Amino acid sequence: MTRGRVIALEGGEGVGKSTQLKALSDLLAKRGIEVVLTREPGGSEGAEAIRELLLQGEEKRWNARAEALLFAAARSDHVEKTILPALERGAWVISDRFLDSSLAYQGEAGGLGISRVRDLHEFGSEDFLPDRTLVLTLEPSEGVLRAKHRDGEADRIGGRSPAYHGAVLAGFRKLAEQEPDRVKLIDASGNEATVTARLMAAIADLMP
Ligand SMILES: Nc1ncnc2c1ncn2[C@@H]1O[C@H](COP(=O)(O)OP(=O)(O)OP(=O)(O)O)[C@@H](O)[C@H]1O
Ligand SMILES: Cc1cn([C@H]2C[C@H](O)[C@@H](COP(=O)(O)O)O2)c(=O)[nH]c1=O
């Protein structure tokens, strides 16, 4: 049995990650690939419980270090209970956010530093990495408009300042520079089908 693959879809708020998750899943399924769709924070029973703690309540509910630790704890459970079993049976996992969100949000924008947050991942998930991280990039203001159009309500972290979200985007750009083979920036402007085609091109080399 060939091991499956893990693709993480990343980016700022409202850039189209959930939309593209479904589109990619449909295309992969048509090629006969078993696909497991998941998300972070969440993706396992324990991690979904931690999601509530992280995304609900006052913005200052957690200090920056506690927030990063909670994301790392949720990810550890998600990797062990959902991702590794799927990979072992040969499925592909597509995750709506993964480690690189922690590096960009808590590490870069939250001021903890990318390398300290990566250290938490090394401990929590034995530095398990996705085969490819696809970062959808869009002007933050356009992403906010798309997200507002969808549901109007921002969560604890989504509701942070434009400066914070600008730093998140800068963090993702930094990650793509540091690890160009694993982390790819994908232009998220244009219609859904155009963006899906860009994403498929960016994983073409991983296809069986
Ligand atoms: N290419 C596109 N052009 C215009 N609108 C889009 C495009 N892709 C998605 N949308 C719309 O933008 C909104 C946000 O999309 P989606 O929920 O997929 O984003 P997201 O990145 O998962 O958001 P969040 O970070 O808040 O979870 C939805 O209303 C969706 O229909
Ligand atoms: C995995 C992860 C997520 N976040 C933030 C990013 C978003 O504001 C929320 C998740 O909400 P979504 O609408 O379901 O994408 O959480 C983060 O700050 N750090 C992370 O590691």
Automatic annotation (TrEMBL):
Keyword Transport: no
Domain of life: Bacteria
Family, as annotated: Belongs to the thymidylate kinase family.
Enzyme class, first EC level, given as a word: transferase
Keyword Transferase assigned: yes
HAMAP family to which the protein is assigned, alphabetical: Thymidylate_kinase (MF_00165)
Origin organism lineage: Bacteria, Pseudomonadati, Pseudomonadota, Alphaproteobacteria, Sphingomonadales
Pfam families: Thymidylate_kin
Alphabetical list of PROSITE patterns matching this protein: THYMIDYLATE_KINASE (PS01331)
Catalytic activity field: dTMP + ATP = dTDP + ADP
Name this protein carries in UniProt: Thymidylate kinase
Record GO terms (molecular function): dTMP kinase activity
Function: Phosphorylation of dTMP to form dTDP in both de novo and salvage pathways of dTTP synthesis.
Transmembrane regions: none
Domain Thymidylate kinase-like: 9-195
